[in-house]
Automatic annotation (TrEMBL):
<feature type="signal peptide">
    <location>
        <begin position="1"/>
        <end position="24"/>
    </location>
</feature>
<dbReference type="Pfam" id="PF11845">
    <property type="entry name" value="Tll0287-like"/>
</dbReference>
<keyword id="KW-0732">Signal</keyword>
<feature type="domain" description="Tll0287-like">
    <location>
        <begin position="48"/>
        <end position="189"/>
    </location>
</feature>
<protein>
    <recommendedName>
        <fullName>Tll0287-like domain-containing protein</fullName>
    </recommendedName>
</protein>
<dbReference type="InterPro" id="IPR021796">
    <property type="entry name" value="Tll0287-like_dom"/>
</dbReference>
């Protein structure tokens, strides 16, 4: 059922409380490795371009870039991998960033692990559960907040950025973060 080094007792009990059936015997090592690769690929496609957009066009321009490019990268990766590729958060901004029950439980567990002093970079969680009657592999890996992220996710957002955010995301919850916080997580799934 679990495969990562840092599974905690909280998450096990939480996930069992969710109405899905866990498949204890599935060997998920290979899938975990593929997930790590997908997370790397997502970051590798987004981050350099985001930095470039920030440097050359400023944060308001970069915001529009994130608005269109991030969903596009997720869609392309979903297509090329055959997985469902997404990013979610307990404080969501993007249209698809609102977590489902399983994702909420995992995100909360990541927060609990952080409180317990476990480095965010080492965290991940995977499990095979039944979704719509089908065994489904699910994987999550938290995304830490870096200094550069604070321009659009921090506690002091410049007025022009705030205005653009209000325009694009009237229900935005993804502000008020500090460096080192868990901004959200990659969430991948694959029907087995
Ligand atoms: C220029 C502004 C900007 C910067 C800088 C920025 N983001 Fe974002 N971020 C956005 C926007 C806009 C979205 C929503 C994208 C969408 O519509 O899917 C977003 C979405 C996200 C999401 C998906 C979950 C959600 O709430 O939608 C994560 C995770 C995330 N950002 C993490 C980061 C991290 C980590 C950094 C720093 C490396 C960062 N962001 C830097 C603007 C920014």
């Amino acid at each position: 059922m679990k495969t990562q080094t840092f599974v905690s007792a909280t998450l096990i009990s939480l996930s069992l409380a969710i109405p899905f059936v866990a498949y204890a015997q599935t060997d998920t090592q290979k899938l975990d490795q593929q997930s790590r690769g997908l997370a790397k690929e997502f970051l590798g496609k987004l981050k350099p371009e985001l930095m470039h957009a920030m440097k050359n066009g400023g944060p308001v321009h970069a915001l529009s870039f994130c608005n269109t490019k991030a969903p596009e990268i997720a869609a392309n990766l979903s297509k090329s991998s055959g997985w469902h590729v997404n990013r979610v958060s307990l404080k969501p901004r993007g249209a698809s960033a609102t977590p489902d029950k399983w994702e909420v439980a995992v995100l909360k567990d990541f927060e609990a692990q952080k409180m317990a002093g476990i480095p965010v970079k080492q965290m991940e969680y995977s499990e095979v559960i039944k979704v719509d009657g089908k065994p489904t592999y699910r994987y999550m890996k938290p995304i830490p907040t870096g200094a550069v992220c604070l321009t659009c996710h921090g506690t002091h957002i410049a007025p022009a950025v705030k205005q653009k955010l209000n325009e694009l995301y009237p229900h935005d919850k993804a502000v008020g973060f500090n460096k080192g916080d868990i901004r959200g997580a990659f969430s991948f799934s694959k029907t087995l």
